[in-house]
Amino acid sequence: MVDPEAVYRQTTPRSRALHERAAMVMPGGTTRTTTYFHPYPLYIERGEGCRVWDVDGTERIDMLGNYTALILGHSHPKIVEAIRRQAARGTGFAAANPIEVELATLLCERVPSLEAVRFCNSGTEATMFAMRLARAFTGRPKIARIEGGYHGTHDYAEVSTHPVVSEAGPPEAPQAMADSMGTPDWALDQVIVLPFNNPDAAERIIRREKSQLAAVILEPIIGAGGVIPATIEFLQRLRDVTRELGILLIFDEVISLRVAPGGAQQLYDVTPDLTTLGKIIGGGLPVAAFGGRADVMEMLDPRREPNIAQGGTYNGNPLGMAAGLAAMTELTPDVYDDLNRKGARVCEQLTEVFASHHVPVQVNSAGSLLALHFTDKPVVDYRTMAAADKKQARDLFLGLVNHGVLMAPRAMGALSTPMGEDDIQQFVDAVEAVVAEQRRRWESREPNARASR
C-alpha cells in the first residue's frame, strides 16, 4: 500500500528545507493559510502555460491555477507584455489612470448587473464594501449569507463558512457560527444564515428578518465550498423575495465569473443588485471589484454629500488594470465555450474512473470548475459536502502531487485555456493511478467511517 506522505517527503527535500526556514519568520511557514498542507507546503518556482515547476525541479500540471484565478494559465504572452509595457511607464500613481476606465467599461458591458463599478485589491475587500453599501443604502444592519459559502475574511464574512454541523442547528434553520477566533459577537448577531438550495426555508428566514435585513449575499455557484451550483428555482426565489421586501441581492462572482462572459448571472438569467468580482479580472495580479445598480453605487460618488469613502493605495493601480484588461480581452465567448466543453469532458472521464474502481465519488462541476467529494450522496449544499470523507480527499491530493498534478488539498480544481487533449489525459490518468494505489487504504477505512456517521 503506497503511503503518499512518505513519497512526498522523499521527493520534495528543497520544499521541506524552505519550509523549515520560513517557519522561523512566518507563522506556520507561510503567509497564506490556503497554501499550507501537512507535512509542509509545496514551493513553486515558476509556471508556464498549464504547468508549474517546484523548487526541486519537478514539473506538474496545474489543475488549480492559483485557486481558479489563472484562467489563461501562467505567463500568457499578452499579459506578460501588458505588464512589461506598463511597468516601464510606472506601477502606481496618486491619481486616476486611463486603463481603469477601459477595464471598468469592459466589465460593465459584459456583466448584466453592472451599471457602475469600483476596483479594489481582493475579494475580501469587494464583499466588505458591497455589504457596507447595502447597509448604507437600506438603512438596515443585518446581512444574510449562505451556510458554506465563502466571502473572504472580514468580520461579516467570517461566519458559517465551515461550521461544525453538529453545533450549527437544523439544516432548514442554520445558526450563525464563528469561523475564526477573534470574530466578534456582534458579527454573529448581525449575520443571518440561510440554507443553500432550499428556497422555502430561505424565504421563511428572510421574511422573518425583513425589517433588519440589508442584503442577501451568495455565490450562485459555491466555489471554495465544493463547486455546488444553485438551482434556478433557488436563485429566482431569492431574487423575487428580496425585490419584494426592498432587500439588496448580492452575487459573489469572484470565482463564478469564469463560467461565462457575464458570469453565473448570465447563465441563470437572474440579475442581482450588486456583484463582487475578482481573480480572473486581474490577469494574475491582485485586482477585485464590486458594482451594480447605479442608484446604489452613487453613494460612493465623492461629488455628493454624504458619501461613502473608499480609499486604497493600490485600488485601480495601472499594473493590475493592464494585466486585467489584457486577460479579459482574450476571454471571448468562443474561449469560454471551448473551456467549458473541456470541463464537461473531464468530469465525464473522472466519473468513469471512479465508477470503474467502485469508489463512491461525486464529481461536482460548473464550466471549467470541478470538485471531488468522496461520498455516495449528491452534494447539493454545505451539509452534504461536510459529510464527505476528507481523509480520502487528502490522500487523492497528495497522491496527485506525487503523480505530477497540483489540485487544492480539498480536491478542487480548475481548467485553463492552455490545456490540450494530452494535458487533460495526463490528469485523468494520474487520477486513475492514484485511485488504484489508494483503493485498499480507503476500503480499510470504510467500517470506521460508517461507524462515525
Characterise this structure:
Strands 4-12-11-10-7-5-6 form a seven-stranded mixed sheet, with helices on both faces. The protein has helices at 4-11, 13-22, 65-68, 77-89, 98-110, 123-138, 185-190, 199-208, 232-245, 264-268, 294-297, 318-330, 333-356, 382-386, 390-402, 421-452; strands at 44-48, 51-54, 59-62, 116-120, 142-146, 191-194, 213-218, 221-222, 228-229, 248-252, 274-277, 288-292, 362-366, 369-373, 405-406, 412-414. The protein is of the alpha/beta class. Helix 4 packs antiparallel against helix 12 (318-330) and helix 13 (333-356) packs across helix 16. The protein has two domains: 4-71 and 332-452, Aspartate Aminotransferase, domain 1; 77-330, Aspartate Aminotransferase, domain 2 (3-Layer(aba) Sandwich), CATH 3.40.640.10. The protein contains 16 helices and 16 strands.
Q: Give, in spatial order, the strands making up the sheet with the most strands.
A: 4-12-11-10-7-5-6
Strand portion, in percent?
5-15%
Helix count?
Answer: 16
The helicity comes to 40-55%
Overall average residue pLDDT: 96
- Which structural class do the helices and strands define? alpha/beta
Radius of gyration, in Å, reads: 22 Å
Shape: globular
